[in-house]
Each structure stands twice: as structure tokens, then as C-alpha cells.
Amino acid sequence: MINLILLGLPGAGKGTASERIVDKYHLTHISTGDMFREAMANKTKVGLEAKSYIDKGNLVPDKVTAKLVEERLGQPDIKNGYILDGFPRTTVQAELLEGITKRLNKPLTNVISLEVNEKTLIKRLSARFMCKNCGATYNKISKMPKVKNTCDRCGGHEFYQREDDKPEVVKNRLKVNEKMNTPLKDFYQKKGLLTVINGEQTPEKVFEDIDTVLSNNQ
Fold first, then answer.
1. Rounded to 5 degrees, what angle do the CA atoms 91, 114, 35 make?
2. pLDDT, averaged across the chain
3. Residue 11 assigned as binding residue
4. How far apart are CA 141 and CA 28, in angstroms?
5. Active-site residue set
6. Which end of the chain is more exposed for a tag (fewer CB within 10 A), N or C?
């Protein structure tokens, strides 16, 4: 079984990599961002609280996130393994996750970090837009809809740019994330779980490198 964390700054390509991993290994992709966006769309208490942080490019507090993650990992669809995307972001969260995975008997098997330089990240994120109906993500540089102004996934015609993908917010997001990313990588390096992969490569080559790592678990 593969239980995986994907690390990387916003725009590093975690979403694209996750889709390819799910297709091959049939893991359940758990994105805290998706969970919070659903909560925000439904205007739940936790969703509105998360939105106040996310719109400013800041991180959602641990207390709001950890319970949500534990509930999600405890659901029955986590049978072939999971990919955690967006959690943990700090060593404190990593320690919380360690407790969660022990309680649920679903320990981590791999931690993969996608490394991309800041200029590339800003360029990628500022070009990103989403389908208003289903949330599918596109990019003006690398991933336009196959049919102009039509979502590949749901056929919708309305698109928008997230507040936290606007250039002025992107720079703040990267600073906040980068400050916490190094200690987190060190945490998993010491546990022998970390593999670093060059995220500047094509999506195909990035997945090829990830596949090489994960196939050793089969």
C-alpha cells in the first residue's frame, strides 16, 4: 500500500502529479485546499474561517485543519492508500499527522517534494484559472481547455481566477510557504521518507521520476 505526501510550493505541479498517480495506483487524493473550498462554497463556519486566511494568502491554523484531515482519512474510500496534498505544512502539523496515522493504522510510506524556482512559480500561478462550476484547474501557459471557453470536465463556460492566484497575493503565499517548507523536508528526511524531484521538468518526466520511487513499494 502507498500512503503518500506530496510537498512543494504553490504552483509546483502537485495537482497534475496527483492526477497521474491516482490514475496508475488508484489512491485517494486528499487535498485540504479542495476540502476547504467545498466548505467555503457551502459557507460553513469552518469554511468562512478558512476563507479569511486563504484570501490573504495566509495559512489556515492547525486546529481548523487537523480534525478535518483525520475525519477524511477515517472514511471508507481510503482502501488502496492515499495522497495528502496541502497537509502537513509545518513540523507541528507533521507531528499531528503522525498521531493521526498511528490511530488509524495508516502510516506514511513516502514523502515526495517537487522543487521549482520562485520565478517559475509566480509565472505559473498568475496564469492559473478555474471552472466556476466544477473547480477544474487550467493554466494560460500549459493547460488551456481543449475547446475554447468550455471546461473539459463538465462543459461549463464560466471561469475565474482565485484570489490567492493573483500576482500580489502569490508572492506572499510563496514567502509564507517557503519559510515552513525547509523544516518540514528536514523532518521527513530524518525519518528516511523524503525524495526530492525536479519539478521544472515536463509533467511527463516528473511523473516518470515519481513512478520510479513509488513502484518500489509494489
1. 65
2. 88
3. yes
4. 28
5. 14, 89, 128, 162, 173
6. C
151 annotated ligand binder: yes
- pTM for this one? 0.73
Is 137 part of any known ligand binding site? yes
Q: What number of other Cβ atoms are within 10 A of residue 71's Cβ?
A: 11
- Residue range 55-104, pLDDT digits in tens: 888 878 888 888 778 878 888 888 889 999 878 988 999 999 999 999 99
Residue 88, annotated ligand binder? yes
Length of the chain as a residue count: 218
Domains located in the chain, CATH noted: 2-116+175-217 (3.40.50.300)
> b/e map of 192-214 (b: 16 or more CB within 10 Å)?
ebbbebebeeeeeebbebbeeeb
How would you classify the pairing of strands 81-85 and 2-7? parallel
Average the pLDDT over 172-176 and give the result: 82
